[in-house]
Protein backbone atom coordinates (compact mmCIF):
# COMPACT_ATOMS: atom_id res chain seq x y z
CA UNK A 1 0.00 0.00 0.00
CA UNK A 2 1.34 3.47 -0.91
CA UNK A 3 1.84 6.37 1.45
CA UNK A 4 0.19 9.69 0.75
CA UNK A 5 3.63 11.25 0.25
CA UNK A 6 4.45 8.77 -2.53
CA UNK A 7 1.06 9.39 -4.17
CA UNK A 8 1.65 13.15 -4.12
CA UNK A 9 5.05 12.59 -5.70
CA UNK A 10 3.50 10.38 -8.39
CA UNK A 11 0.96 13.09 -9.23
CA UNK A 12 3.69 15.73 -9.55
CA UNK A 13 5.80 13.51 -11.80
CA UNK A 14 2.95 13.09 -14.28
CA UNK A 15 3.09 16.70 -15.54
CA UNK A 16 5.77 19.36 -15.69
CA UNK A 17 3.23 22.03 -14.79
CA UNK A 18 2.40 20.24 -11.55
CA UNK A 19 5.99 19.42 -10.66
CA UNK A 20 7.35 22.97 -10.99
CA UNK A 21 4.50 25.15 -9.71
CA UNK A 22 4.96 25.98 -6.01
CA UNK A 23 1.43 27.40 -5.84
CA UNK A 24 0.12 23.83 -5.82
CA UNK A 25 1.08 22.61 -2.37
CA UNK A 26 1.47 19.01 -1.29
CA UNK A 27 -1.54 19.58 0.96
CA UNK A 28 -3.69 20.59 -2.03
CA UNK A 29 -2.60 17.52 -4.01
CA UNK A 30 -3.16 15.22 -1.03
CA UNK A 31 -6.66 16.63 -0.56
CA UNK A 32 -7.53 15.95 -4.20
CA UNK A 33 -6.06 12.43 -4.03
CA UNK A 34 -8.30 11.77 -1.05
CA UNK A 35 -11.39 13.19 -2.78
CA UNK A 36 -10.90 11.07 -5.89
CA UNK A 37 -10.15 7.97 -3.81
CA UNK A 38 -13.37 8.43 -1.83
CA UNK A 39 -15.34 8.74 -5.07
CA UNK A 40 -13.97 5.51 -6.57
CA UNK A 41 -14.01 3.46 -3.36
CA UNK A 42 -17.64 4.40 -2.68
CA UNK A 43 -18.45 3.23 -6.21
CA UNK A 44 -16.75 -0.09 -5.53
CA UNK A 45 -18.40 -0.67 -2.15
CA UNK A 46 -21.79 0.10 -3.67
CA UNK A 47 -21.03 -2.75 -6.07
CA UNK A 48 -20.28 -4.96 -3.03
CA UNK A 49 -16.55 -5.00 -3.70
CA UNK A 50 -13.70 -4.53 -1.18
CA UNK A 51 -15.81 -5.45 1.86
CA UNK A 52 -13.76 -8.56 2.61
CA UNK A 53 -10.38 -6.82 2.25
CA UNK A 54 -8.32 -4.76 4.67
CA UNK A 55 -7.06 -2.29 2.06
CA UNK A 56 -9.60 0.47 2.76
CA UNK A 57 -10.58 -0.09 6.38
CA UNK A 58 -9.03 1.56 9.43
CA UNK A 59 -9.33 0.05 12.88
CA UNK A 60 -9.96 2.16 15.96
CA UNK A 61 -8.91 -0.44 18.52
CA UNK A 62 -10.72 0.88 21.56
CA UNK A 63 -13.56 3.38 21.96
CA UNK A 64 -14.57 3.96 25.55
CA UNK A 65 -18.33 3.83 26.20
CA UNK A 66 -20.49 5.61 28.79
CA UNK A 67 -24.09 5.01 29.83
CA UNK A 68 -26.70 7.50 28.61
CA UNK A 69 -30.52 7.56 28.52
CA UNK A 70 -32.00 6.37 25.24
CA UNK A 71 -33.89 9.68 25.00
CA UNK A 72 -30.54 11.35 24.20
CA UNK A 73 -30.70 10.24 20.58
CA UNK A 74 -34.45 9.97 19.94
CA UNK A 75 -37.89 11.00 21.21
CA UNK A 76 -38.48 7.71 22.98
CA UNK A 77 -39.08 8.31 26.70
CA UNK A 78 -38.01 5.44 28.93
CA UNK A 79 -35.86 4.59 31.92
CA UNK A 80 -33.92 2.35 29.56
CA UNK A 81 -30.23 3.23 29.23
CA UNK A 82 -27.81 2.47 26.42
CA UNK A 83 -24.09 2.97 25.83
CA UNK A 84 -22.52 5.78 23.80
CA UNK A 85 -18.94 6.45 22.78
CA UNK A 86 -17.36 8.96 25.13
CA UNK A 87 -15.82 10.82 22.19
CA UNK A 88 -17.24 11.67 18.78
CA UNK A 89 -16.01 9.41 15.98
CA UNK A 90 -14.53 10.58 12.64
CA UNK A 91 -16.88 10.82 9.68
CA UNK A 92 -17.54 7.40 8.18
CA UNK A 93 -18.18 7.04 4.44
CA UNK A 94 -21.75 6.27 3.43
CA UNK A 95 -22.78 4.05 0.55
CA UNK A 96 -26.12 3.51 -1.16
CA UNK A 97 -27.34 1.23 1.58
CA UNK A 98 -25.39 1.85 4.79
CA UNK A 99 -22.27 3.21 6.42
CA UNK A 100 -19.10 1.57 5.10
CA UNK A 101 -18.41 -0.30 8.33
CA UNK A 102 -16.74 -3.70 8.31
CA UNK A 103 -17.55 -4.38 11.93
CA UNK A 104 -18.19 -3.12 15.45
CA UNK A 105 -17.03 -5.46 18.22
CA UNK A 106 -17.51 -5.43 21.97
CA UNK A 107 -14.24 -5.70 23.86
CA UNK A 108 -13.76 -8.38 26.44
CA UNK A 109 -11.25 -7.35 29.09
CA UNK A 110 -9.86 -10.88 29.29
CA UNK A 111 -9.84 -11.94 25.62
CA UNK A 112 -9.16 -8.58 23.96
CA UNK A 113 -12.22 -8.70 21.69
CA UNK A 114 -15.75 -9.90 22.17
CA UNK A 115 -18.84 -10.30 20.06
CA UNK A 116 -19.57 -8.63 16.73
CA UNK A 117 -22.54 -6.29 17.12
CA UNK A 118 -25.41 -6.01 14.67
CA UNK A 119 -26.25 -2.75 12.91
CA UNK A 120 -29.74 -1.32 13.39
CA UNK A 121 -31.50 2.05 13.14
CA UNK A 122 -32.72 3.69 16.31
CA UNK A 123 -36.31 3.60 15.02
CA UNK A 124 -36.12 -0.14 14.41
CA UNK A 125 -34.72 -0.65 17.87
CA UNK A 126 -37.58 1.31 19.43
CA UNK A 127 -39.99 -0.94 17.54
CA UNK A 128 -38.20 -3.96 19.04
CA UNK A 129 -38.66 -2.53 22.52
CA UNK A 130 -42.42 -2.47 21.97
CA UNK A 131 -42.52 -6.22 21.29
CA UNK A 132 -43.51 -8.62 24.08
CA UNK A 133 -40.14 -10.37 23.92
CA UNK A 134 -36.93 -8.52 23.06
CA UNK A 135 -34.13 -10.56 21.54
CA UNK A 136 -31.02 -10.86 23.66
CA UNK A 137 -28.83 -9.18 21.05
CA UNK A 138 -26.57 -6.15 21.15
CA UNK A 139 -27.09 -3.62 18.36
CA UNK A 140 -25.38 -0.39 17.33
CA UNK A 141 -26.21 2.72 15.33
CA UNK A 142 -24.59 6.11 14.64
CA UNK A 143 -26.21 9.44 15.46
CA UNK A 144 -24.80 12.96 15.86
CA UNK A 145 -21.25 11.65 15.27
CA UNK A 146 -21.51 9.22 18.18
CA UNK A 147 -21.76 5.44 18.11
CA UNK A 148 -24.52 3.99 20.30
CA UNK A 149 -24.80 0.42 21.57
CA UNK A 150 -27.98 -1.06 23.03
CA UNK A 151 -26.15 -2.94 25.79
CA UNK A 152 -25.45 -0.33 28.49
CA UNK A 153 -22.89 -2.57 30.21
CA UNK A 154 -20.43 -2.60 27.30
CA UNK A 155 -17.38 -0.61 28.42
CA UNK A 156 -15.53 -0.36 25.10
CA UNK A 157 -15.85 -1.32 21.42
CA UNK A 158 -13.54 -1.82 18.46
CA UNK A 159 -14.59 -0.08 15.24
CA UNK A 160 -13.40 -1.10 11.76
CA UNK A 161 -14.64 1.30 9.07
CA UNK A 162 -13.77 3.34 5.98
CA UNK A 163 -13.37 6.91 7.18
CA UNK A 164 -13.71 10.02 5.03
CA UNK A 165 -11.25 11.95 7.17
CA UNK A 166 -8.01 11.27 8.97
CA UNK A 167 -8.33 9.41 12.24
CA UNK A 168 -6.38 11.14 14.99
CA UNK A 169 -3.55 9.36 16.76
CA UNK A 170 -5.43 9.77 20.03
CA UNK A 171 -8.07 7.41 18.64
CA UNK A 172 -5.67 5.07 16.83
CA UNK A 173 -3.42 4.68 19.86
CA UNK A 174 -5.60 5.08 22.98
CA UNK A 175 -3.31 5.20 25.99
CA UNK A 176 -5.98 4.62 28.64
CA UNK A 177 -7.97 1.90 26.91
CA UNK A 178 -7.13 -1.74 26.25
CA UNK A 179 -3.42 -1.31 26.96
CA UNK A 180 -2.48 -0.42 23.36
CA UNK A 181 1.26 0.25 23.08
CA UNK A 182 2.81 2.55 20.50
CA UNK A 183 6.26 4.05 19.98
CA UNK A 184 6.84 7.80 20.02
CA UNK A 185 7.97 7.73 16.37
CA UNK A 186 4.77 6.01 15.29
CA UNK A 187 2.55 8.31 17.34
CA UNK A 188 4.21 11.45 15.93
CA UNK A 189 4.39 10.23 12.33
CA UNK A 190 3.42 12.77 9.67
CA UNK A 191 0.09 11.78 8.05
CA UNK A 192 1.81 12.00 4.64
CA UNK A 193 4.08 9.12 5.66
CA UNK A 194 1.29 6.80 6.78
CA UNK A 195 -0.12 4.13 4.47
CA UNK A 196 -3.08 5.49 2.56
CA UNK A 197 -6.11 3.18 2.17
CA UNK A 198 -6.20 2.85 -1.61
CA UNK A 199 -6.50 -0.54 -3.38
CA UNK A 200 -3.71 -1.09 -5.89
CA UNK A 201 -6.02 -1.60 -8.86
CA UNK A 202 -7.52 1.88 -8.34
CA UNK A 203 -4.20 3.72 -7.94
CA UNK A 204 -3.61 4.58 -11.60
CA UNK A 205 -7.16 5.87 -12.04
CA UNK A 206 -6.94 8.01 -8.91
CA UNK A 207 -3.63 9.55 -10.04
CA UNK A 208 -5.04 10.33 -13.48
CA UNK A 209 -8.23 11.89 -12.11
CA UNK A 210 -6.25 13.93 -9.57
CA UNK A 211 -3.84 15.26 -12.13
CA UNK A 212 -6.64 16.21 -14.54
CA UNK A 213 -8.56 18.01 -11.80
CA UNK A 214 -5.51 20.00 -10.71
CA UNK A 215 -4.67 21.05 -14.28
CA UNK A 216 -8.24 22.20 -14.83
CA UNK A 217 -8.38 24.03 -11.51
CA UNK A 218 -5.02 25.81 -11.52
CA UNK A 219 -4.28 26.18 -15.24
CA UNK A 220 -7.71 25.92 -16.86
CA UNK A 221 -6.41 23.08 -19.04
CA UNK A 222 -8.88 20.39 -20.03
CA UNK A 223 -7.00 17.13 -20.34
CA UNK A 224 -7.69 13.86 -22.07
CA UNK A 225 -5.36 11.10 -20.97
CA UNK A 226 -6.31 9.08 -24.04
CA UNK A 227 -4.63 11.68 -26.25
CA UNK A 228 -0.88 11.86 -26.69
CA UNK A 229 -0.49 15.55 -26.00
CA UNK A 230 2.62 16.96 -24.34
CA UNK A 231 2.49 16.54 -20.55
CA UNK A 232 -0.86 14.85 -20.92
CA UNK A 233 -2.49 17.95 -22.39
CA UNK A 234 -4.99 17.62 -25.15
CA UNK A 235 -3.45 18.50 -28.56
CA UNK A 236 -5.34 21.81 -28.73
CA UNK A 237 -4.58 22.90 -25.14
CA UNK A 238 -2.94 26.32 -24.79
CA UNK A 239 0.81 26.43 -24.29
CA UNK A 240 1.52 28.25 -21.00
CA UNK A 241 5.31 28.01 -21.14
Identify low-pLDDT runs. Answer: 225-241
- Rg, rounded, reads 22 Å
Could you give the distance between the termini?
35 Å
In round numbers, the mean pLDDT is 84
Strand order of the largest sheet: 3-7-1-2-6-5-4
Give the biggest sheet. 7 strands, mixed
Q: Tally the helices: what do you get? A: 7
Shape: elongated
Overall structural domain count: 2
What percent of residues adopt helix (DSSP H or I)? 25-40%
The sequence of SSEs as H and E is HHHEEEEHEEEHHH
Number of strands: 7
Strand content: 15-25%
> From the helix content, strand content and strand pairing, which structural class follows?
alpha+beta
What does this structure look like?
The chain is an alpha+beta fold and 241 residues long. It folds into two domains: 4-52 and 197-232, no CATH class; 58-192, no CATH class. Helix content is 30%, strand content 17%. It has seven helices and seven strands. The two termini are 35 Å apart.
Amino acid sequence: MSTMRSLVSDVRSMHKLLSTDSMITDRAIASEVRNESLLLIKRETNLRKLWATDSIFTTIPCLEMIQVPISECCNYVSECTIARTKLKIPKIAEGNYQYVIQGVYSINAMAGTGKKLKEITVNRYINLLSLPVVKNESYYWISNDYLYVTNPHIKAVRLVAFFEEYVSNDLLYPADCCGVQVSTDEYCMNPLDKEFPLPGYLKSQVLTMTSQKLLQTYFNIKTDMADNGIDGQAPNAPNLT
